[in-house]
Input
Amino acid sequence: MNDPAGKDAGRRGLNPKLKSVENTSRDTETPTRPPSESASVQHEEGRAWPIVWAVVVIVGVLIALWLLL
Output
């Protein structure tokens, strides 16, 4: 299962056409702001969802009680 140290040296050149390439398609030198600072979400946008879910849960419980009784 484990290769002896001598056989490992012959496996290094399995595909000699593969060469290491440095990817320069993205600029990693220029720092950018974190997404939390650059998001355009307003503070008032998500305030109604807890009320909506509370109404849905109450209606669901009432329907379940009506079906059971």
Notes: The chain has a mean pLDDT of 78. The two ends are 67 Å apart (CA to CA). The chain is about 40% helix and 0% strand.
